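In response to reviewer comment 3 from the previous cycle, which asked for concrete evidence that the modeling workflow produces usable outputs, we include below a single protein chain processed end to end. The sequence was submitted unchanged, and the resulting structure tokens are shown without manual editing.
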Amino acid sequence: MPPLKIDIHTHILPRTWPDLAERYGCTGWPRLEHLDPCSARMMIDQKHFRDVRHNCWDVSCRLEECDRTGVAAQVLSTVPVMFSYAARPEHAHDLSQILNDHVAEVCRDKPSRFAGLGTLPMQSPDLAVRELERCVRDLSLSGIQIGTHVNGHDLCDREIFVVLEAAASLGAAVFVHPWEMLGKERMNKYWLPWLVGMPAETALAICCAIFGGVLERLPSLRICFAHGGGAFPFTVGRIDHGFHARPDLCAVDNQRPPRDYLGRFYLDSLVHDCEALKYLVKTMGQDRVAMGSDYPFPLGEDVPGKMIESIGDFSEATKRRLLVGTALEFLNLNESRFMRSITAAATA
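The workflow returned the following structure tokens.
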């Protein structure tokens, strides 16, 4: 019987949504320009952002690909360009509701195959908390996806902390995805914002959560960082050494060293290298790493979980934990919800 798999890092879009420029009376909004039934061009106004395939919006195609790769269930979240944190708060709130209603509908239609994470108008803490409550209480989503920062405000800043505090109170999972990467003004060639900027951006977010006392003040917060935590796990020695070498600079908001927080947050497994994944699990603990593929995008893992399954140094118990157990814990979900799809995947 093959190992079971739950993929915590996948992105989805509606096939269509309203003309946002017309709806809000201003420019700068994403839209899909469908080229044929299987492909579309994602645009921001008249600027090309990326090409997408129908597996980004077609649920039956998504399920076929899950079945082919043995994925029992996916955790759905929007594409980060849809965050729209720079927009007027009421506009971002309205768009969040459109996207969250869509994710919730997909999850309701196939509850044994999908769980959902909502998006919030994070530029307005009040509206963000209101939409967070709706996501959890009315839409039955498992939590939220947020960016690594909001218009330059980091996770430890008051504007973001109040949303994280509400998530902890509601028992909502928080998935942190890099976006609007630092240093991108120097990365206008070679796809470097995605190759170099994303790992650095994610490491910055984790450091802000640690040094800024977010994890200390919110011990019940279930928070997960995408792409294996970026550069953080591989520079934690330097980060911890710097804390002890210059406490006057590093320990100004939290006196506990960074290594104390290993095991206090989750990471996905998307590191693209077997040795890196083994190091990640050794450093962070198997109970804090969950399979994530970044489906359906090109920087993702083509066969979700294949790298985990290929590592002979991992015991079967470790593989099961990475492929399904950590995801269930992070989302606070029971395996019985996915039993029908798990059984189908295991017998395929």
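The chain has a mean pLDDT of 95. We consider this sufficient to address the reviewer's concern, and the full set will be provided in the supplementary archive.
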